[in-house]
Amino acid sequence: MKSRPKLLWLQGVTCNGNTHSFLNYPHLSYILETFEFLYHPLLPATYTLEEIASCTQQCDILIFEGAYDPRMMRAGARMETLVQHYGSSATTIIAAGSCASFGGMFKQSDPEYITGLGFDREIAKGPFAKSPKLINLSGCPIHPEWLGYTLRMIADNKVILIDEMHRPKELYAYLAHHGCTRNEYFEWKVDADQFGTKEGCLFYKQGCRGPMTHASCNKILWNDVSSKTRTGSPCFGCTEPDFPRTNMFETKTNMSIPQDVPLGISKRSYLTLTGIAKSFRIPRLEKRLIDDNT
Amino acid sequence: MTIRKWIERIEGEASVQFEFEKNHVSFATIAFPHSRGMEAILQSKPAMDALVITPRVCGICGHSHLFAAVRAIESVYANCGAPVEISQKAESIRELTLTLELIQNHLKWLYLVIYPELSHLLQEKIADSCRLKGAYAASLATKILAIFAGQWPHSSYMIPGGVTCDPTHVDSIRAEGLLDELIRWFEKELIGITLDEYSHFSSDKAFLTVTGDMEKIEKMLKKAKMHEQGFSYDRYLAMGEHAFSKSSKWVNRRMAKVHSKFVTLEEPYSIGEKTYAKNALYQHNSFETGPLARAMIKGVPFIKQMYRQYQDSTYTRVMARSYEAALLLEHCKKLLHSINLEEPSYIKPLKKITALSGEGIGIVEAPRGSLIHSVILKNGIIDHYRLITPTQWNLSCGSPKTPGPAQKAMIGADSIETATFTFRSFDVCSVCTTH
What we know:
The complex is a heterodimer. Chain A is an alpha/beta fold. Chain A is built from ten helices and eleven strands. In chain A, the strands form four sheets. A five-stranded parallel sheet of chain A has the order 2-1-3-6-9. Chain A has a two-stranded antiparallel ribbon with strand order 4-5. Chain B has 15 helices and 14 strands.
């Protein structure tokens, strides 16, 4: 039998959300057949954590979940030692989730010491800064299909194109805005005046970061069925280096104009278009989508 | 003789030091070595951000944290004389998605922890694919949850005043279809009889009709003599108000009312090992919380019958959690049918959150038991946030005179392996314990 690539799932400062998100992956049996799991926090694996902590094995793929704190101890081993040992033998290092990619939520636990594996927010820093082996799969948590895609690309020896933040382009060239069911409301600048409705765009008041966030959440749906914006929650921009921001349910505005405009669009173009779009009154978009009177 | 062991697969790790006397565990201390300082992260943030931050306390029960956080903020509104109105629909959807989180938790625990650990303990091999069954069933539960909450883990769809989603019948029919599929899976793989028959068991004799994995697990539990060990305080606590659970305590076979003012946090006992877990106590006493406590308080006939025979043994504890999954599936079915989609999802609170100053408390029943969030807001900004998680009750580390529930349950075990299994019967969550 051909030996399978050895995969190690290691945890830094984490909530285990990426572990649990990946358990939703519909093709887990393919993954377990294709890779040998040296260690995983829940799935069947060859070694115990204590055995892994003794640094006597080597892996081909290192999946790291959680923020990186060099001083942290796992089963008696220092994180810096663990990451250096397993990272040096690995041909691919996958930062699973935003904490591992950029520091994320748990950078706030100790901002001075905690970073991602190769980035500290958007600055290249950490044990694998600028390493060509590093793939960031940001998101809080990681999307199971995104990790499934990455592992299958590796198994098939296919080249994964990455952006300047080391994220696979096929997953992160899209914005969370793409495929949002509220797009028409965005086009015609019809905002949702409150939460709890399927109508209206959440970009103007409710803090939605969809047009500025690299993520394919509305293309590759969550749990195969939905997404935040499809269920009326704003996108919090959880795949971006600046996640978590503050005041996440509110859009920052200056003189009632959103402070941040859609990615790559100049403020002037945005304002011009908005001015025109707002000058029209479109009764269809102001009514409920499903109107029982017609 | 003292032996230290790392216990893993508990949403992180714990270090347990077992003391042995005459080949039996005479005492054990529990230390949780990691902490992320969630309460400090919440400090000075706008109140609504708690709905994004607190789900990140835990990857497996983050939805329970979201529910506790929204209840805590709504309680500040109420304490400020501006109670928030919530539609029955929003209440039902919240309860539905919480219930689904409990179900995914219990099924993962059963297939990824309990079944493999029993097989290890008894040296009876089970296929790796068996563990994936639990992940598959859990993913069906989270799929239904995501229809309403957008995603699982880490949704923030509960907000003061209701929920953000506005489902149509297309959504609820899809959810019903998936729930049917999950129930069929449960009947075929786990119990071999109908959910309706199973969830109405009134005596433990009825269990003889059960086939499927549950029959195997039950036999293995007995073979490992789990009905003869793992006894704890026989004191139970459930504080969250839900249709599936009653807020009460059960001591000396009597029920009594509970109030959060009697909950205290105390420093853990330690023998020179750093631990970040504070002990949660009620009137300075240890209480067991979680599915067994909920079943005792609610009076679930099948579990009460089992309790009469095997008391609060590891066996009863494991069976209570497994059985709760069935009751919760029934509950989901009822909830889904009862939701009136014509009602509003969200009723805007009358008072602006930035004008809100005061205290609030939110309590829910999470997979592992009672979860308490308390908050103090000043002009809508978090001035103080305190989390008390279920594992802080069950896994509290007391001195030899006052051991916590899991510590007490491990005393008398004849090996580290059996003691560890009893430890796991509490469904330990390391990340929640220290947060």
